[in-house]
Specification:
The protein is of the alpha/beta class. The chain folds into three domains: 46 residues; 254 residues, 3-Layer(aba) Sandwich (Pyrimidine Nucleoside Phosphorylase, Chain A, domain 2); 84 residues, Aldehyde Oxidoreductase, domain 3, CATH 3.90.1170.30. 44% of the residues lie in helices and 16% in strands. The protein is built from 16 helices and 13 strands. Helix 4 crosses helix 10. It binds uracil. The site of uracil has 3 residues, from helix 9. Uracil binds next to helix 9.
Length: 429
Amino acid sequence: MRPGQLLDRLRRGDELTPGEIAAVVRGAVSGEWSEAQIGAFLMAVAIRELDVAGSSALTEAMLHSGDVWRLGDEFPSLVDKHSTGGVGDKTSLIIAPLLAACGVPVVMLTGRALGHTGGTADKLESIPGLRLEVDRQRCAELVGDLGVAIGVATRGIAPADKIFYRLRDLTGTVPSLSLVTASILSKKLATGARGIVFDVKTGNGAIFPDLAVGRSLARRMVGVCEELGCAASAVISDMSQPLGSWSGLASEVNESLEVLGGGGEERLRELCLVLAEEAAARVGMAVDRQRLVTALDDGSARRRFVDWAAAQGAEAGWDEHPLPLAPHQQTLRASRAGAVAAIATRELGWILAEAAAGDGASGASLDAGVALRLETRLGDRVDEGDELARLYLRRPDDELVERARRCFEVAEAAAPPPLVHERVPEEVP
Ligand code: URA
């Protein structure tokens, strides 16, 4: 069927068959479909959304538009974890070596910063010498030797997503559940992991702040994974405040090492344990909470991270001292006594992204030393003048500090939010 005919059917409200959806993807990659026609397809999908079967067909076609690594054939218990992103979300850095130290092999192809959310790849690259360009063969070697490989998606993975992503940006069709699901999963499933746990964030720092939308996304991603033969579950976790004590590239590596060594902030550690347990359970590995806690407390998870980093090029001894932070510390203080009632997390993410990007004119890479340290969390009691948070900047910037100060609201009373709001599938009591 010609593109115009197929689009006409979409306009009239017809459902496309999986074969027709695959034809759209093939046409986009081959150039048979013009950008105008692809844009019209994307808009129709964004307005009407696909059902789970349509989402699966789109995901599968995008997945097979490029390289498919099938690492699960060699490592049947291979797992992955994906987060929809937020501020201070460093769980990938902790979960991957933690699971590997417990005998669960992990592969992760991670992304760069997207909008106000920090990218795992950018965080890891603040480790001197570390390289994330790994191909299939190198990933297999790393998983075989150390049980963990972390990289960025190679050019050959899901080329259809690259085409769609650019046109989604141009046509205002980024926040569509069907398109987000296919975009994320076409890259995730390319490695061949047998189990995936999704960390879908909810709250004012999440890409989809609304819990009901997060739930729909979680259900869709889990449903599509299951249809395509990958065991999956999702945890809907809180992003109404930054996760952990630190946000910012190098500072998040430092904090990850703390957690991997048995310390760290309690909510961050707990979420990592929850996600690691879920991931292991997806592939039937009997790794319980106690086993995971032991790997953190006895230092084996931390050692695995350092060994993995060395295998991917990190300079020897980088972990002996914390990675350096930007020198100008600016303190944000409470203007009244009460309880921390709200933190404008998305705005804090943008402030960090702006500060780390510098003037942007030089084209220099991100400033890994820019950081935010939370001294208080939602629900904490404070007195007037108490320190709420501290910014680490390359140079003084009063305007930025004032913007950050306005992100904290202190009220008469407030309660801390739950760490995990829901799970998909739901837990049976
Ligand atoms: N991450 C992706 O890879 N794709 C999306 O559409 C959204 C987040």
